[in-house]
Amino acid sequence: MILIISLILAAIILLTAEIFLPGMIAGVLGALCLIGSVIATSYQYGANAGFMLLMAELVTCAILFMCWMKFFPASPLGKKFSLNKQETQTSAPVEFNNLLGKYGVTVNMLRPAGNINIDGKRYDAVSEGSHISANRNIKVVKVEGARIVVRQL
């Protein structure tokens, strides 16, 4: 009986330590302690007692996990572990509709993607299908979100 209780207490300590220790070693050892307690119970008190302990451990772990997910992020410790403001990633402007129909020059070869220059600004663009050499005159024929499609003049 002392072995079973010791294994369960060790599992609780190790699973709690997993919060602070990286690498999942404490968590795996805690889970092994729980499995060991079930095996020791089955060996000492029979399969029914081992099965009942296993079910009790599973239900307890499920309830504690749900409580953890609900309350930990809002706790002072949970706030230290998580980001407190949402980061937004900015990228190139999505709408280039004002470029439709404009003329420009290729900066480098478009095969089929490359860079173009329109009104002194550099843009990423895609040719309509074929390769376009560098320093060629182009026209913007289609804009699909951030995709600029050009045609050689």
- Name the structural class: alpha+beta
The ordered string of helix (H) and strand (E) elements is HHHHEEEEE
What is the terminal-to-terminal distance? 88 Å
Principal-axes shape call: rod-shaped
Strand content: 15-25%
Contiguous low-pLDDT stretches (5 residues minimum) are none
Brief characterization of the structure:
This protein is of the alpha+beta class. It contains four helices and five strands. Strand 1 and strand 2 (113-118) form a beta hairpin.
Short descriptors:
153 residues; OB fold (Dihydrolipoamide Acetyltransferase, E2P); 5-stranded mixed beta barrel; 5 strands; alpha+beta; 2 domains
Write the layout of secondary structure elements.
Elements: H1 2-17, H2 25-45, H3 47-71, H4 76-81, E1 103-106, E2 113-118, E3 121-127, E4 137-144, E5 147-152
Parallel strand pairs: 3-5
Antiparallel strand pairs: 1-2, 1-4, 2-3, 4-5
Task: Describe, in plain words, how this protein is organized in 3D.
This protein is of the alpha+beta class. The chain has four helices and five strands, in the order ααααβββββ. The protein folds into two domains: 2-81, no CATH class; 97-152, Nucleic acid-binding proteins (OB fold (Dihydrolipoamide Acetyltransferase, E2P)). It has helices at residues 2-17, 25-45, 47-71, 76-81, and strands at residues 103-106, 113-118, 121-127, 137-144, 147-152. The chain has a five-stranded mixed beta barrel with strand order 1-2-3-5-4. A hairpin with a 2-residue loop joins β4 (137-144) and β5. The chain is rod-shaped, with a radius of gyration of 31 Å.
